[in-house]
Structure formats: structure tokens, C-alpha cells
Amino acid sequence: QDSNGKARELSSWESDLRRREADIKRREESLKNAGVPMEEKNWPPFFPIIHHDIANEIPANVQKLQYLAFASWLGIVLCLSWNFIAVIVCWIKEGDSKLFFLATIYALLGIPLSYLMWYRPLYRAMRTNSAFSFGWFFLCYLIHIGFCIIAAIAPPIVFQGKSLTGILAAIDTFSEHLIIGIFYFVGFALFCLETLLSIGVLQQLNAIFYL
Question: What's the structural domain count of the chain?
Fold first, then answer.
């Protein structure tokens, strides 16, 4: 009886699963027939987590700028990832868990928020010519540039500034630990490059916006 009950339960579960799959397919077909664009996740190719198709969705005259903005977003991903690695090295050497905690927050919050708060709005603005999306992007991108400048300096405000791989933290750590100092100087260079790239994106977008 137990085996029969389990078989019936399994059969019921499979039927419910098939019914839900059919319902999802019907909804997708309804949206397609209604002309609602379906954004399929396609990037990165090896593990798609976002929809990204500049070549087919962004007007040809601004595709180069969109690619540049995409490089800027990848740049902040690299900066925060390297910052996390460098601070881990510092944490292992000095044992200050507060630095590790802050670097983790920067990476876990900074990477998705940078995509949601300024890169995705710019992508949407380029695709739909939305004034609101452009305005939101400009506001958030200025905050992004401000963060990059602060990170490149790493002023000794919070925990001696070592939670960010800026120039002041790099000089401080280099005098104590050579390897950690090298990690921090690389992080400083990355934040500087990201700042310059971001300013370039803003200047080009501003020039196009006021044409």
C-alpha cells in the first residue's frame, strides 16, 4: 500500500509539473503574440544571467558608445573583484576581519547594483530613447565615478582606508608588506583606469545627448 501511495503521489506531482510547464508556455506564446519583447538571458555565454544584445538591439550610431559603457561596467566588476582579493591577502596577513567584511560588501553589493542602477538604465535608454532612463543613468553614473575616485585615493576615514586598494592604502601597506603593497598598487591602477574610462563614457554620452 505504501508503494502504491508513493506511486500515486509521484504521478500526481509529475502531472502538476507538466501542467505548470504547459501554462508557462501558453503565457510566453501570449506575450509573443501580443508583441511584448521577451528578453532571453544570453550573457555570459557559458552561464547566462543577463540579457545583452548590443548588435541587434542598440542603434548602430551609438553601438560603439554602448560597448564602451559595457567595458566600463566590466571594469568596475574587475576593480571590485581585485579589491576583494587584495583585501583578503591583507586580512590573512594582518588578521583584521573588519577589512574583509567591508571588501565583501563592496563586491557583493557593488557589482549587481552597478548593473541595475546605471548600466541597465543606459542600455534601456539607448534602445528606447527614454529621457527618464537617461536622467537616471547620469545621476547614478556620477555616483559611480565619485566612488571610483574615492577608491583610487582610499582616504584613511574607515579602518585606515585599507578596505579599498587606493594610493594611500597602497603606500601604507607597501612600507610594511611588499606583496600586499603590490596587490594594492595594482588595485589603485585599476581604479584609476576605471575612473578615466567612466569619465570618457560620460563625456561622449553628454556630447551625443546635446547634439
Answer: 2
